[in-house]
Amino acid sequence: MIMEIPSSSNANCFDFGLCDYLQSHHVSSSTSTSCFDLALDFLAELDKDPWFNWGFEDLKKKVRLMKTCFLYVKKCRRRRNHEALLEPDREDRCNIMSENLRRSIICFRIQEVAIRMIHDLQPAYFQYFHSVYDLGFENFISAITRSKEKIKLFLETDLKKSCAAIFIDYYSPGDPRLVMDLIMCLLENLDCILSASELRNTIRNRLKLLRNLIGFVTMQCLECSQLTDLLTYTVVAAGRLISICLSDDEEAVNRMESEICQLLHEKINLFDLQVRETFVHVLTASKKQPRPSYALALRKNEDRVVGQFVGSLRDYLMDLLGSYASFQVPVKDQILRLHEEIRCLGILLKQEEKLGDEMKDLIGAVVSDVAILTFSLSVNEIKEGLPKEIDLVVFHLHKVLKYMVAEVAHNYPLKSPYSSFNYPRPNELGCMDSFLENLKELARCDEADDSIGFQQDRIEMIQKDLVILRSFLENIKEQRHQNGKLQAFWSHVMEATYKAELLIDLALVGDKCEDSLDAVSRDINLLKIDAPEIHNGQTQRVNKTSLHIPSQLTIAMHDEDLVGLKDEVETITHRLTRGSKQLDVVPIVGMPGLGKTTLANKVYNAPSVRSHFHVRRWCRVSQTYSIRSLLVELLCSSSSESSDEYHKMDENDLAMKLRQVLLRSRYLLFLDDLWDVEAWNLLKKSLPNDANGSRILFTSRYQDLSLHFEPNSKPHHLRHLTDEESWTLLQRKLFGTEDCPAALSEVGSQIAKLCRGLPLAVVLVAGILATTAKDRWEEVAKSLSSIVLGDEYCMKTLELSYSHLPDYLKSCLLYFAAFKEDEVINVRRLLRLWISERFVQQTEGKSLEKAAYDYLMALVNRSLVMAVGQRIVGDAKACLLHDLVHEFCVEKAKEESFLYVIHSWKASLSLIGPSNPQRVCVHKTTELKIWELTLICPNLRSLILSGHVHIECEEEYLGILLPKLLRVLDFGNSGFVYHFPMEVVLLVHLRYLALKGIGYIPSAIANLSRLETLIVEDPRGYANELPSTIWNIKTLSHLRVLDLFRIWPEGFIFPVENLEVSPDLDRLDTLDLAIDPSPQSLQKILRKLPSIRRLKCRERWNSSREATRNCNEILEFDGLSQLESLHLFGFHGCGFKFPLNLKKLTLTRNYQPWSEISTIGKLPNLEVLKLLEDCFVGEEWVMKEGEFPKLQVLKLSRLEFRNWTAFSDNFSRLEQLVLHRCKKLENVPSCLGECENLEMIQVKRCRESVVDSVKQIQQEQIDMGNEVLEIEIDNYDDTSISSEEESTEAESTPSEAEEVSSERESISSHHAVDNCESECTVGFNSSE
């Protein structure tokens, strides 16, 4: 049954003159809103139907707007001047009747649209529900389309003209809530019409301020008569916006933006004196009202009104800062201080449940005072300097808020930035060096005095004293571990350094604390004076021995524990007993606990090895050793003689004795646990090389140690156990030769899998399970990492590797605690974070990124980090840690006050540990409460979020209260849904910023004068359009914009206006760029970016070129002298000029003729060439002699050429050839068979003739002696691939690039690392 439209008999509410009009339409009229409610209920029901998953939200927003307009028009009265009100006459009464008729007609028309929509939709839906699906569904969709068009037409005509005029000329007495609803409905519809931009955000903030101000003063029971001016201004503003905005076609939207800008400047300018006086008037009046307590209002759940109003005050100040960017620095500091106090109010409001009634009433009064102060700020004062009275008021406000914070401190561990704190202890000298560099930069700044309010000489004094102390600390860094006084002095210096840095950084955000800095400066000076006396009095008594960390630990792990590594034993045995007759080394390398020693022992005692070698000797080297002890151990390891006689011999005699034992014998030396090359250098003079097949077998955590012995040696990387092998080992340790009970099989197998293939973990867990009740094995599985890490042997094994790291690598290793367990971490993202954290020191002749990559490889070499997904040339794409190492990093980072991981916000306070941590990583952002971090971590410098959550500005009006000293801020997968968190632009210390889902980048981003890395993922609206102020951020070095689904590349759009007066971004190294394909636009931008090293450049989607897409222009990149890597996407038919220093080039969808490729072939330094998806068109590619002289990698994908001709010198250095989906290609050039360096050929979905030619090349390579060539063929018969499969399985163009698929995704097991290469390839716009 179709729903009926309810009607009302209250016809007397309409003028009698309207009756005939209503009856002529044969529609029952109503003065109620039931028709709108019914329409909204009907649309809500439709939303529940799974077939309509696109939703009806936009339609519901329009209906809500019509309902609100209906109510307002029905209740409003015409505004008249004072004289007219005093002396009404007959003409006025006639006008009133005419106006009533006009309003009634408008109300009827609004109702009629809603009623007709229901009349149209209900029968169509009824037919769809009860008839044949296809016909009914199509009819219903048609009805929906008609309804949308009718409503759209009504909004653009009747409502836009008539209703807007009513808003401007009439007012609604006594109903502020109706005005607030009108603003909210207007905001909803503006969001649908306007694209995400700074303009839209400005409109939103101003309308929300008006709404929230009305709500705040209404909550305080202000009489409606005193609200008339405010309500009038608000409704007029709404009316003017409606008269401009209620159209959503593209042409109208483009036109309205300029009109809105003018409207904001002239009519909705909240900085206007008269407007601000109106605001101050209602706020002052509200304070004088006899009203219920603010505490009662909070209990009525009106705290959101107050919180929203406080948020609007903060937005107002931000708008003020952005509107008058040229005002004096002291004025800016005062406004920032006021902003900080408002932020503090917001935080207190979050603690509502911890506040008493008296405190709640005080908050209400303080909010009013803050608002009055904020709206009292004059534009002229801002330009010329604020009066002292403002300073006094802000100071008084600060005192009141300080009292309020103290009142709630016993309920909540609020912390002052100046409270005692445990500073990060890894790489303390490196942190001091970074601070000294910052002081130098500050000293070079011409505006240092104004920007921080300190005397220049004070900074210079701190800097000079710390330089002297830095030198002293360098001299005692080893001795301090053995001398309590030296360690205490070291700690005092570091604490004073961190405090000085903190105070100076606080001053830069407007929190001046001269007295505190004076005290710290005096402390530093006294420490400098005391340093010589401390040094002379203590170092004399220091015993200069290296730090000893015992490694001779025992554990029940024997040869019989070697499970499933038969292939490894055979490989090592083969290398020992066969091959070259010259003395050779066979290294076994891997992470701690992998079973290197067990494997080596198995091989050492194997019968085939025992019979092959005449002499076998072994010794454990470990971290601390002496050459004498090593020689004695080698001589005694296989001798029945007593070691007494060797202990009497000196070192030279022992070396000679060993040489005599080994001379003219085929010997095997097993050196266990080798840490550095020094031990080898001490031993090698005793080792003869008689060219008889002698071998040196050693184990080490260092992967490249053997290169110091023998440059051509290849280490054997010991693999992890498979899940099945881990389960077999666990059963053997627990049950011996017996079978595992069936009841324990499933949980036991799960526990073995959780050991991630590490034999040490399996053995340790077996020891725990052996003494654990069988019904509690599930508990062991749930807390496996903490149980294993709690084992003394395991902890000391990992501690040994950590302690042996140089200080600068300790910070880098512990930083892995910020990532999730099992997370595959994108290398470039990691390196940018390290650089932003100042872990990486500049090295002469190396870029910071290259130095950072060397740091990573040093950790890989020490078997603490695993590199996965190797790039086509050299570098690793991604890395990960074994679970055990990751858990060690998490615990060690917390112990060293380096970084804290919050897994669940419910227990965040207990997890934070010591006060004021500097780095926090939040792994569960669904419970995110960043404002709490501001309370408990005021000194926070780095915040990294992971998980998936949308941060809605409406829902989280105070959710983004960020600690003001942040240097690194990564929102991870927390998206902002077209919003930009304006709080960010106040973080003046920020170096690294990663955002997702924002709608625009505000011009105020220029306030981030230290920003180095900006990453925007999943940009919405105008988020990839950079404001003109971007040129003022001279520190920028890394600009990336990433598409969420990684389907198409994205790029930033640079502003090109007034470039001649804009500064260069001469530090910018990496850039994703989108441009119009005109040489003029490109050259204008590139001239401002002289240091670009990696550039990805795409043609803008709304390019101004003609639809033919033809382009005879040449885009010139040859002026970029530093450019090494270039990816070009689009630019249909354009030609290019490339710089001679280019090493890597990727082209996609350029549609150039093959004749143009000679330009590329002449590049003298090109090493990697990727030609993707129609970058060249034509049937034949003919390579010319002498082209591509240094080409190492060639990738061809989705190219429609048939014939390929080449010469052998084109491939003189080629190592890898990749062919993907070149479906017309008939074969590859036969001269590839002559290529001497060829290592890999990969063929995917090409013709069988191509596969045959590749196999022929493989045979020629084998005949030449090339045993390392790998051939990978993944081919299908083209005819068997359906169009559906094609769309599903096809590689998208972006997946051709060399980046990591997702830096935030994890893999299920470390055993999958071998297959990670294919999993870790993504597109042009891959995440970092």
Keyword list:
1328 residues; alpha/beta; 16-stranded parallel sheet; five-stranded parallel sheet; 46 helices; globular; plant defense; nucleotide-binding; WHD_DRP; ATP-binding
Descriptive account of the structure:
The protein is of the alpha/beta class and 1328 residues long. The strands form eight sheets. It has a 16-stranded parallel beta sheet, sandwiched between helices. The chain has a five-stranded parallel beta sheet with strand order 4-5-6-3-7. α29 links the parallel β5 and β6. α3 packs antiparallel against α7 and α23 crosses α24. The chain is globular and about 125 Å long. The chain starts with 18 loop residues before the first helix and ends in a 9-residue tail after the last helix. The N terminus and C terminus are likely disordered. It is found in: Cytoplasm.
A few lines on this structure:
With 1328 residues, this protein is α/β, with parallel strands linked by helices.
Amount of beta strand: 5-15%
Main β-sheet description: 16 strands, parallel
Helix fraction by DSSP (H/I, runs of at least 4): 40-55%
Q: What is the average per-residue confidence, as pLDDT, rounded to a whole number? A: 76
Q: Which residues form runs of ≥5 with pLDDT under 50?
A: 1-30, 81-91, 446-453, 540-560, 907-912, 952-959, 1106-1110, 1277-1328
Q: Count of helices?
A: 46
Estimated structural class: alpha/beta
| Number of E-type strands | 34
Question: So what's the overall shape?
Answer: globular
Q: How many angstroms does the end-to-end distance come to?
A: 58 Å
